[in-house]
Description:
heterodimer; A: alpha/beta; 9 strands; 37% helix; B: mainly alpha; 10 helices; 0% strand
Amino acid sequence: MADILPLRIENLSYRVGEQLLLSDITIDFEPGPISVIMGHNGAGKSLLLKLCHGLIAPSSGSVSWNGLSPAKALHAQAMVFQRPVVLRRSVLANVEYPLKLKHISRPDRQTRAMAALEKTGLSDIANRQAPLLSGGEQQKLAIARAWALSPQVLFLDEPTASLDPRSTAEVEGLIRTIHGSGTKIIMTSHQDAQVKRLADEVIFLHEGRIVETGPAQDVLAAPKSAEARAYLAGELPV
Amino acid sequence: MNEIYTGLAQAFELIIAFDADLYEIISLSLRVSLTAVAIAAFIGLPLGAALAVGSFRGRTGVIVALNTLMGLPPVVVGLIVYLMLSRAGPFGVLGLLFTPKAMIIAQTILITPIIAAFSRQIIADLWVQYREQLLSFGATPWQRTTTLLWDGRLQLLTAVMAGFGRAIAEVGAVMIVGGNIEHVTRVLTTAIALETSKGDLAMALGLGLVLIFLSLSITAVVSIVSLSQEN
Lengths: 238, 231
């Protein structure tokens, strides 16, 4: 599979009726750093992630993957949602499912699925029914399922938003490991502490616009924009 | 009251003695209704899924029509199928009137809308949950549909059972298109109607008990299977 990065977003806008939810988004995602899109709830973070992943079509502007067609680029991407979607089948069958869609042979997909479950610490419960797992386990399963696809880019939408601290730590550990294995991570978060722990670069979104981007340390320590300063100081948007 | 007890006693005797006529009627009833259910499920499940997932012109119209057709009166369906299959009708040449096949056709028409409408609702609810994830996996429309049908299988089974319940219990349609001919098209419901009007309450009660037993036991088996799958 050809390299799908860089991901280039140009003049992207998204509107629903009269309401402009994202406007004038222009940004490049290069291979390498963990990119975290941060901002208040409702700033448009999840929406931007879904537009990048191709789940929604922009109202105007473009999303381009190193000159590849969206369908081709999609094959090298995976996404983990805020609320994990688990299929009504066993844990192992859940991980095998997207591999099956891609017509990977049964022995191959079993090997890859089991390897992903090993790495996420879920191999002991491979035969349990996925809908019966706890929230943390379901999120880890969603990550294992995405990981088994060996994506070049992994999108994570607030992956720890509804998890307890222990599961959060485990999920963050997995994100680091996946990143370490060469996968580009693009995620959203509205927890400053998490951004501090994980992010290499930060994209700060405010009311549907990018107001600041830069290395995580710089943006977090000395934000240039008034919006990011207010956000990091814990002020609520007026 | 006495008559009822005598009737019940005779009914049990018929059942236990493996009365040939009785078992012929039971087997035809099951054959007709199960075949109708199988055909209706074959049409109704994919149709329901397509309506839930697809977007095409006239979709709303089809959904409204299906929901309305769920309440089709069996006698009217019987009458329409009768007109279609009668010698003067468009399918008269097939010679299907007063055969079990005609009864299967009538029951299929009666229950396909039920299965399709229930499946559409079940699949639509599941699609809301799965949509983004399946799109993210790059699932083709066919893969999406089969996944939704498979993951919704337990609830869909309930939809199919609702269809079976209606098919096995209806009398109006099969009476008209089958004609209640002994050894040919006599099923449980038409036999009960006939025996009651003849005054043979023992036979009528026996048949009634069998009908209740059949529909309860099949529903019970399906419920047990789906409950055991849930846990």
